[in-house]
């Protein structure tokens, strides 16, 4: 064993304590750390020949890299849809690395059973039935990809073809219909060989991002009975608009289609008594995407993919080799996603659910919704600011009387907050997305005050 490695093994308790103390200081200093910043360029260092040991590496990280890291774990990082990490999830993340389990298989460890339990808890929390099975993936993009891969196999079944065995050439074009699909859906279609252009946009309701179900019915009718994939939204990224899942499901009486629901963060509406109706019908979807490092507030990366068709999922992703156990009963997780080896992502989610339960996470969700509505109300009173959509859940989308890129940069430069620009219905806008477990109305007030000071 090399000298630095042997020394670290001997000093491991002290090194972990030092790292723990530093992590605590980082979290305690989130209010003073800029929420986002344009970091200074850090010259690349040469590959270490001998290494400095853990203490030396920590010192170098603190000196060279930590100053450029953002305060994205804090309460006023409102860009994209970014949660933080609850204390329990952070403990789970530490233990994920400590135990270093390969959660892809069921042999030699109870790790896979813990993932099963966690998926079951999540399915119950989102109102999914026992017919839905699930597995952990890296994020919403991979969850959408897995769901659409299973959908592709389902369409092949309807045409007497197994895409998993015979390839796309035997299948031909698959129509994919959606009102306002997230960019990750197009990326997934590209990866899956269906092509970005296979998605046929369907008209949305006036001044909405929700699909016009009458227009969707017409698009399905035009397919003349050919099976299709419908991608529905349970929370669009700009305005958190929801497709009418019940109305879409009713179309199954006339048309054959696979229903995939992108509920990356909007699925958490199920936890809010005032908003749970928005995801009514989710339990009848064929596949569902939920991203946990958003509103469950677990560390990157962690998401889950649900489906009612595990048999097709195994057909697509199964992996056979002499050194791997055969599929008997409940399949190993490497038969369910593109990955074979992977970290036990479920442990962070298990910890935060075990620690705070449904009630604790409901409080996180409803507090974020309240903060978003409060910011919306404050902005409506600011001259020149226009809300481009009602605050439906946790995102405030608004236009301002100046260049949005300049304003977003000014907000970031202030160190007080971080917002991301977008374009909604052809109009440049800013988005403030609330999903961090620390965020309160007071943070919304600070952001509102900052915008009032920066606007002309």
TrEMBL record:
InterPro entries: Aromatic_deC, PyrdxlP-dep_de-COase, PyrdxlP-dep_Trfase, PyrdxlP-dep_Trfase_major, PyrdxlP-dep_Trfase_small. Keywords: Aminotransferase, Decarboxylase, Lyase, Pyridoxal phosphate, Transferase. Gene3D superfamilies: 3.90.1150.170, Aspartate Aminotransferase, domain 1 (3.90.1150.10), Type I PLP-dependent aspartate aminotransferase-like (Major domain) (3.40.640.10). Its cofactor is pyridoxal 5'-phosphate. The lineage of its organism: Bacteria, Bacillati, Actinomycetota, Actinomycetes, Micromonosporales. It comes from the Bacteria. GO terms for molecular function: transaminase activity. It holds the Pfam family Pyridoxal_deC. Belongs to the group II decarboxylase family. This is Aspartate aminotransferase family protein.
């Amino acid at each position: 064993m090399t000298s630095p490695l042997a020394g670290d093994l001997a000093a491991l308790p002290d090194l972990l304590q030092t790292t723990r103390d530093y992590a605590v200081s980082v979290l305690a200093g989130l209010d003073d750390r800029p929420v986002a910043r344009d970091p200074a360029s850090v010259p690349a260092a040469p590959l270490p020949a001998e290494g400095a040991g853990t203490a030396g590496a920590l010192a170098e990280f603190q000196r060279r890299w930590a100053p450029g890291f953002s305060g994205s774990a804090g309460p006023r990082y409102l860009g994209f849809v970014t949660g933080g990490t609850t204390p329990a999830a952070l403990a789970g993340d530490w233990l994920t690395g400590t135990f270093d389990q390969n959660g892809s298989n069921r042999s030699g460890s109870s790790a896979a059973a813990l993932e099963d339990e966690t998926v079951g808890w999540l399915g119950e929390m989102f109102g999914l039935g026992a017919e839905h099975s699930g597995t952990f993936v890296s994020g919403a993009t991979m969850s959408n990809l897995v769901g659409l891969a299973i959908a592709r196999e389902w369409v092949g079944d309807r045409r007497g073809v197994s895409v998993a065995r015979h390839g796309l050439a035997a299948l031909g074009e698959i129509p994919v219909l959606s009102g306002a699909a997230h960019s990750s859906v197009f990326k997934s279609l590209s990866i899956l060989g269906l092509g970005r252009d296979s998605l046929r946009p369907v008209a949305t309701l006036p001044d909405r991002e929700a699909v016009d179900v009458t227009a969707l019915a017409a698009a399905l009718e035009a397919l003349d009975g050919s099976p299709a994939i419908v991608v529905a939204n349970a929370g669009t990224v700009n305005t958190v608009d929801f497709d009418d899942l019940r109305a879409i499901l009713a179309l199954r009486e006339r048309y054959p289609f696979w229903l995939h629901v992108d509920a990356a963060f909007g699925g958490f509406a199920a936890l809010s008594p005032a908003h749970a109706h928005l995801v009514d019908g989710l339990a009848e979807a064929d596949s569902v995407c939920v991203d946990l490092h958003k509103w469950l507030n677990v560390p990157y990366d962690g998401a889950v993919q649900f489906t009612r068709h595990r048999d097709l999922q195994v057909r697509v992703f199964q992996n056979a080799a002499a050194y791997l156990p055969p599929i008997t009963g409940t399949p190993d997780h490497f038969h369910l996603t593109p990955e074979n080896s992977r970290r036990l992502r479920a442990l962070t989610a298990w910890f935060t659910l075990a620690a705070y339960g449904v009630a604790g996470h409901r409080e996180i969700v409803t507090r974020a919704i309240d903060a978003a509505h409060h910011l919306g109300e404050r902005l409506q009173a600011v001259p020149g600011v226009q809300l481009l959509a009602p605050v439906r859940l946790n995102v405030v989308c608004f236009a301002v009387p100046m260049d949005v890129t300049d304003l977003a940069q000014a907000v970031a430069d202030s160190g007080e907050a971080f917002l991301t620009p977008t374009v909604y219905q052809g109009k440049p806008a800013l988005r403030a997305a609330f999903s961090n477990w620390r965020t309160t109305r007071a943070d919304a007030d600070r952001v509102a005050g900052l915008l009032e000071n920066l606007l002309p």
